[in-house]
Amino acid sequence: MTTEHGHDDASSPINRRDFLRLGGAVGAAVLGSGLGLEAFGAAAGATGPTRRLLERPQAAPRPAASPTRGGTLRFAIAGGAATDTADPALAFDSFTIYTACFLYDTLVRADVNFTLSPGLATDWSANADATTWTFKLRDGVQFHDGGLLTSADVAYSVKRILVPKLASPVLGNIQPFLEAKNIATPDPSTVVFHLTVPNAFFPQILALANFGVVPSGTASFAKPIGTGPFVLESLQPLANALFTRNPSYWRSGLPYLDEVQMVVIEDDSTRTEALLGGSEDFIDNVTGSDIELIQRSSRAKQLYIPAGGWEDLAGWSNKPPFNDPLVVQALKHAENREVQMNAILPGGYDVGPDVPVPASDPFFPAGLKPYPYDPDYAKFLLKKAGYKDGLDLTLYAYAGDKLDNALAYQQTAKPAGIDIHVVTWPHATYWTQVYLAKPFIGDSWARLHTSVMLQEAFVSQPNEFHWNSPGFNALCAAALRTTDEARQKTLYGDALTILNEHCSGLIPGWVHQVYGAGNGVEGVELTNGGQVYFDRAYLT
Amino acid sequence: MSLAAREIARTALKLAVSLVAVSILVFVLTVAIPGDPARAVLGKAATPAQLSAFDAEHGFDHPLWLQYADYVSNLLRGNLGTSYASSVSVASLVLPRLCRTLFLVLFGWTIAAVLSLSVGLASGRRAGRAFDSVVSVVTLVVSATPEFMIGLLLAFVIGYHLGWLPTDSSSAGFYDVPWPALSSYVLPSIAVALTISPYVTRLARANAREVMGEPYIRAALLRGVGGARLTARHVLPNASPPVVNALALQFAGSIGGVVVTETVFGFPGIGQLLVQAVGERDLAVVQAIALIIGGAYVVINVLADAVVRLVTPRLRGAQA
User: Fold this and answer.
1) 3-state SS track over chain B
2) Does A264 reach chain B within 8 Å, measured CB to CB?
């Protein structure tokens, strides 16, 4: 299943699945803008085991100002690619995902806690076994060219993604559940999806920016038409894009901003300095010491999502030595999670058990604890498994957070008799020569909805853990089939507990996805998968 | 005149041969890069059918000489090809950036030329005195500072601390010409100038010093010619030809050499595009940029050579 990874292979530095660069993380949520415009949810007050820099006393929150109209928001982003396009179906890196968020709308929008809110759809429901999903569309929504939104446009937008030739990065997310011919439009305001496989969380997939709705029949995106808050003025791949306000946006009164100027500044320190110096208003992908710089600055503030993405070291669970449960346990007890996460993003992490779902998630099994760091016990387990002289492993990673994790683990595992040889691989060829090719690698993932995450990383074949467990798959499939929340929680809880205990994926914790904003910037909505919304953003 | 005509013919021939050599070299190098552009673009899930379709589409299955011939015939028609990664024309990616980089280099080079000639000549005239020593030390320090440090210091002090200018030049990317975003060009131009100046200043100084020892200078001094008149009419014309040559080389070299400055300032120019294209294995773009940079270097060098040759013989006979 490589189609969903899209341009991971083409060595773009940033893509949806893996936003981490040099210690940064993916996904985001607004924290601390203090205006209550969006639901911050439990994430904002999440009690992770460590808070580090975030515990430093913040300046007294400014009194909420009422939104002011007008102004240009200057947004500097970390990277683009020559393939940057306004086609939402092909959005894969931050440039294209932000563009998709500004120009188009999806049927529903998911916030940082995956709580869905109406977008182009006002109402949605499933039948009892989650095989049929019906969406009611909002009336009177206009495209940028004045045309009215109908169900035909929605059907077209989804159908084109299901065509393999387009090579949409989200093809792999939706293809297992839906065939193009099973999208029905009984009337202009209703779309019905007849799924081939039940999925109780189907709308979560449609919340991805790739499913932005385009007018039926759209073939070229040179002059893109969407329903979104902004209209495209110009787009230069790898360089910049200019967006102006859509006066007929269906969220009446919005957006407040007149213009968004998005530019690519690849160098991290240049980008941070631009924010601190006032030539940019908003930046993404803030990493390492830049986070502290922004915190200490009197001109800028940080916005972040606590559980932006997870780091992992993936071994092939079907091959020696990872196919030995004693060895897997030993490796887990050799993780000093605090040390590893601190090496990756000091001051911007939470540790957790070896599961791809953060503690703040509703599906996280209550009370699931990470294995403690116990190198002596690990050594004992290895001896029991027959490795009297310790275990030798070769671990591959490329420069950045994955390498930091690998090197830190190398140190924490040493007292357990685990000798790890870390190989630094060039980024450009990592996804073709190392990923899925070497038996022990460093990787990181953006946070996705639990149903999507488990499907993509642990159910799909091949995956980087070589994890193929019929019992696990059955639990996941059952969770997708039921609409009973309590039952879903139990099933996913069991599945995650299995991963924590048996899977050869070592997941020390979660990193924050940090953005920087000038003090006068308010109302920015950040959510997982690197999606950023400026509908309600304004400058004071 | 027969002399000029011969010069022009010789120059033209040199140009033609050099450009052909550069194009062959660039072509061979990009073809020799390990890694399969088809795989890089289509991804590891590509089927053999997809891979051979890609190769056929881009002519990779033809013999090398035929690929080269196609490449050259496209070039002569002004077609730089299509970017492998994005299917936009290479020209649309490269040309706006080339324009911006050329302006950046022009601004920086002009500052450098004026600065280094004037300081260098003045320093050479006052060889051994306080002014000369100070200039010597400053030039040394500047030339020892790495390019990115110069850029970072400028951005930090003038941009961030003093706030006089933007710390990054990304807004220059919205325009193909400098004037709407001129403030974005200032700091990088100064950085470019500071990179070029030290060597040229030292050269100008050395030449000026040498010229100052010439008999015709002493004769002029004895005649009462002094100060600015001496510099302008006697020292400058005689000391400058090698300096002009060096400046021309610096200009040519800067077109490709501003990569670091462009990266530090986020300046959307050709250097930055080259780095990005190499990272993405977009060989069509890499090839086009390498050819442009190599071609520009050759053209400027050959022309500078010719100009100096045409100018100097006349000067040799000039009366002091």
Assistant:
1) CHHHHHHHHHHHHHHHHHHHHHHHHHHHHHHHCCCCHHHHHHCCCCCHHHHHHHHHHHCCCCCHHHHHHHHHHHHHCCCCCECCCCCCEHHHHHHHHHHHHHHHHHHHHHHHHHHHHHHHHHHHHCCCCHHHHHHHHHHHHHHHCCHHHHHHHHHHHHHHHCCCCCCCCHHHHHCCCCHHHCHHHHHHHHHHHHHHHHHHHHHHHHHHHHHHCCHHHHHHHHHCCCHHHHHHHHHHHHHHHHHHHHHHHHHHHHHHHCHHHHHHHCCCCHHHHHHHHHHCCCHHHHHHHHHHHHHHHHHHHHHHHHHHHHHHHHHHCCCC
2) yes
Residue A80's pLDDT is 83
ipTM for this prediction? 0.78
Q: Is the pLDDT of residue A59 over 80?
A: no
Residue A492 has pLDDT above 70, yes or no: yes
Structural domain count of chain B: 1
**DSSP characters over A7-43:** GGTTT-S--SS----TT--------S--S-SS--HHH
What is the structure's pLDDT at A312?
96
Task: Indicate left, alpha or beta for B114 from its phi (over 0: left) and psi (-120 to 50: alpha).
Answer: alpha
- Rounded to whole angstroms, the Cα distance separating A13 from B38 reads 19
Would B29 be classed as within a structural domain? no
**Radius of gyration (C-alpha) of chain B in whole angstroms:** 24
Residues B108, A180: Cα–Cα separation, whole Å: 57
Angstrom CA distances, B248 to B101, B187, B209, stand at: 16, 22, 21
Q: pTM (2 decimals)? A: 0.82
What's the pLDDT score for residue B122? Answer: 86
Confidence band (pLDDT; 50, 70, 90) for A38?
Answer: very low
Q: With H, G, I as helix, E, B as strand and everything else as coil, classify residue A142.
A: strand
Q: Which of residues 403-442 of A touch B (CB under 8 A)?
A: 427-429, 431-432, 436
Number of helical H runs and strand E runs in chain A: 15, 21
Omega prior to A321 cis, within 30 of 0: yes
Q: List the CATH number of the domain containing B221.
A: 1.10.3720.10
What mean pLDDT do residues A137-158 have?
96
**Pick from A347, A297, A306: nearest CA to A519:** A297
Domains of chain A in sequence order: 308-513 (3.10.105.10)
pLDDT at A50 over 60: no
Indicate yes or no: CB of A2 within 8 angstroms of CB of B85.
no
Contact assessment for residue B272 and residue B222, using Cβ atoms and an 8 Å cutoff: no
In a domain, B244, yes or no: yes
Domain span including residue B275: 95-281
* Chain B residues close to A13, C-beta within 8 Å: 279
**Smallest CA–CA distance from A277 into chain B, residue:** B160
C-alpha–C-alpha distance, residues B166 and B154, integer Å: 11
Q: Rg (Cα) of chain A, in Å, rounded?
A: 23
Give contacts of B173 with chain A, Cβ < 8 Å: 236, 239-240, 263-264
**B37 CB within 8 Å of a chain A CB:** no
CB B207 within 8 A of CB B200: no
A100 strand-pairing partners: none
> What are A537's two structure tokens?
């953003």
Q: Where are the beta strands (DSSP E) in A46-94?
A: 72-77
Measured between alpha carbons, how far is residue B11 from residues A439, B14, B250 in Å? 60, 5, 20
Whether B268 is in a domain gets the answer yes
The minimal CB distance from B86 to the residues A82, A273, A276 is found for A82
Q: Taking residues A76-96, what's their average pLDDT?
A: 89
Q: How many contacts (CB atoms, under 8 Å) link A and B?
A: 128
- Is A2 within 8 Å of chain B by CB? yes
Sequence letter at residue A147: G
Q: Does the beta-carbon distance from A274 to B264 stay under 8 Å?
A: no
Q: What is the mean pLDDT of residues B287-310?
A: 83
